[in-house]
Specification:
Elements: E1 2-3, E2 13-14, H1 25-38, E3 42-49, E4 52-55, H2 58-65, H3 74-88, E5 90-97, E6 103-109, E7 113-118, E8 124-129, E9 135-139, E10 143-147, H4 164-184, E11 189-193, H5 199-213, E12 229-233, H6 243-257, H7 261-265, H8 270-296, H9 299-303, E13 306-311, H10 320-330, H11 338-344, H12 365-372, H13 378-382
Antiparallel strand pairs: 1-7, 2-7, 3-4, 3-13, 5-6, 5-10, 7-8, 8-9, 11-12
Length: about 400
């Protein structure tokens, strides 16, 4: 095998450069807020035919929804994939297949580097390098790859160098605040003796002065001096960082990751949550859905409606007022079952709760047309046929 030749000219090699962004508290809290919300999505194998969706293979759904592999839960899997996605803009997972080609596990990967290779037949492989020199080569068809800032490389997303100056500035701000606090806690001054003393005597006199007047025991705040010495304190004015500067740095980091402070502090409104979900969570879930669908099913299986979807009930994150309003509008149309309505209200389901209730004020379109036309054949009207022919169908 040889390294794959890409059109962009840059080598198809991934190295997880982050500049230690995860050690920054602002960056880490923002990534954590995104990852833990993304991890609440539910991956499902569904089969959609003629506009009707039904659950797919139960064993596959168990892997997707409960235990991707024996060591982690689905929450952990999605959390790690999202974390590495925003740290390195490339997130990898390995699809383990059994002897029959069926999925038996999904493993998120944390490689030191990834190199894309190809053989004489044109098949693409991924060569993973892990710690202690361990290597793992697997076909690209068994690798999930989520890319962010997909621009300069044909196979990989760009790194996070663009945000590093902001992170360096945030680090400098933290150091400045720490030094300001330390400096403000120190007492400084010049102690001048009006007589000539040896170096050793001068040092002893300084220590005695500090012990007598600058120690914590001297709570009176008064020093008694004679003509032998003069003490001149040095006024210390530490430079404090402007709050607007702190907010500017914070907003640049949050904006880079696509998250607001309300999401991080869990003080978001419904509109803030909706904007965050649609702009940050949903694009990542779409990537994951397409990758899993394309790697787990053949084109023929996809043509028959097989797909993997990552979905979330967004109504669960709205206020009770919004939930009740939505139920009032949706329930009369028969769009929700009783148990679905109870689930939205965070209540347990009931027996026979899969029924759909519908108001009599809403009727089927065909029935309304027949009623308004007095039973006349509507298709005949459209096609210029006999408008007097009666519909012989039984109601």
């Amino acid at each position: 095998m040889q390294r794959i030749d890409v059109m962009s000219g840059s080598p198809a090699v991934f190295t997880p450069f982050s500049g230690d962004a995860y050690s920054n508290d602002l960056y880490r809290s923002a990534v954590d807020a995104i990852a833990k919300n993304f991890a609440k999505l539910v991956p499902s194998h569904v089969v959609t035919q003629a506009g009707q969706r039904k659950d797919g293979d139960s064993s596959l759904n168990y892997i997707l929804q409960t235990r991707p592999n024996p060591y982690i839960s689905t929450y952990d899997f999605l959390y790690k994939m999202a974390t590495r996605y925003f740290l390195f803009n490339n997130s990898f997972a390995y699809l383990s297949l059994d002897d029959k080609g069926n999925l038996d596990g999904i493993y998120p990967l944390s490689p030191l580097s990834v190199e894309f290779m190809t053989d004489t037949t044109g098949t693409v492989y991924c060569k993973f390098l892990f710690s202690k020199g361990r290597q793992f080569i697997v076909g690209y068809s068994q690798v999930i790859l989520l890319r962010r800032f997909y621009n300069s490389n044909d196979l990989l997303g760009d790194d996070n160098r663009a945000i590093m100056p902001t992170l360096d500035l945030a680090h400098t701000q933290n150091q400045g605040m720490e030094n300001s606090i330390k400096n403000s806690a120190q007492i400084r001054g010049l102690l001048k003796y009006n007589q000539v003393l040896s170096g050793e005597k001068l040092k002893e006199a300084k220590e005695d002065f500090i012990k007598d007047y600058l120690s914590i025991e001297n709570n009176g705040g008064i020093a008694a001096l004679d003509t032998k010495m003069d003490y001149q304190p040095i006024e210390n004015k530490p430079a404090f960082i402007n709050g607007q500067q702190l907010d500017a740095i914070k907003n640049r980091i949050y904006g880079y990751l696509g998250v607001s402070e309300g999401i991080i502090n869990c003080t978001y409104t419904e509109d803030e949550w909706s904007a965050f979900y649609e702009s940050t969570i949903e694009p990542l879930s779409t990537q994951m859905s397409l990758e899993l669908t394309g790697k787990l099913f053949t084109q023929r299986e996809q043509a028959f409606g097989n797909s993997i979807l990552l979905e979330s009930d967004k109504l669960q994150f709205t206020s009770n007022t919004t939930k009740i309003t939505a139920l009032k509008e949706l329930m009369p149309l028969g769009l929700l079952t009783i148990n679905q309505a109870l689930e939205i209200l965070n209540l347990p389901g009931i027996e026979d709760g899969d029924k759909r209730l519908q108001t009599l004020n809403v009727a089927d379109t065909n029935i309304v047309n027949k009623y308004q036309m007095g039973g006349k054949n509507i298709e005949g009207n459209k096609n210029g046929g006999d408008t007097n022919r009666q519909d012989t169908g039984q109601e």
